[in-house]
Every structure is written in C-alpha cells, then in structure tokens.
Prior knowledge:
Blueprint: H1 3-9, E1 16-22, E2 25-31, E3 34-38, E4 43-49, H2 53-58, E5 63-68, H3 74-82, E6 97-99, E7 105-107, E8 112-123, E9 127-139, H4 148-151
Amino acid sequence: MSGFEGFVQALDYPVHVVTAACSGERAGCLVGFAGQTSIDPPRFTVWLSKANRTYAVAARSAVLAVHTLPHDALALARLFGALTEDEGVDKFARTPWTPGPEGVPLLGGAAAWLVGRVLDRADWGDHVGFLLDPLDARQARPGPVLMYRQVRDLDAGHPA
C-alpha cells in the first residue's frame, strides 16, 4: 500500500446520494467526494465519476440534489451505490421520492438534502466536480449520518 492509499484509507466522512434530472431522464448515485467550498457566497461541490450514468445526466442538468443519508440507511446507499441504471435498474421505482426544482428527485429517506444550481464543472481526473449554488436545503432527520466506513465494502455499480 502506498503512503497516499494509507492516508486516505484512514479517513472517514459522510457519503451522499446525488440525483439529477434532464429531459425526463433521472439518475442518482452514491458519492464519497462532496463538501462545502465557500462560506460567502455559499457553495458546495460534489464530484461524480465519469464512468457513472449519473455523471452523463448531471452534465446536462441545471440543478443537482445532494442527499445526506441517516446512519441506518445502508439499504438506500446500496441501492444507489451498488446498482446501476445501465443494467435496467430503476432506482427511483424502489424508493420514495418527490420532484424538486427542475424535476430533480428528492429522496424520501434522506436525513437532509440540498438542491443547488450548477455554476461550474471541473475535470479533475476520473471525477468531475460540480460547483453548486444552493437554492434550497432541508434537514428532515437530525442525528448521525451514514459514513464512508459503513459502505467501504460495497461492490460499486461502476469502477471509479
């Protein structure tokens, strides 16, 4: 194991589900790379793997939704992290959701969510960063959130 691999393996952070919608098409995936990037103005960035179908939909979307999952939502994380729409799986038929701004899916099982207008996209290797300007946010279920260590062993629907 390289020094870098050892360093990142020691980290633990919240995981999120990002959803996107464009031209009647919906997509969503589990992401481990996300965070606040500015206080004033408020900004949040999520990074999506180029190998993921959600990236293709997000690349055409005006807004994205970022969902923080409650600590006990492993089944929801597995749905959006281990299954892929590329194999005909309709993730949104398997979980409650409602349409948000511009039709972006808002997941019913989320602890909190943020909808942001996409301001910029930056290619940083195998992932693309989406800079979001928050339009709306809600905390539905206060308490501990799902962390990377809890999903570390999921078989991803796509490689990074």
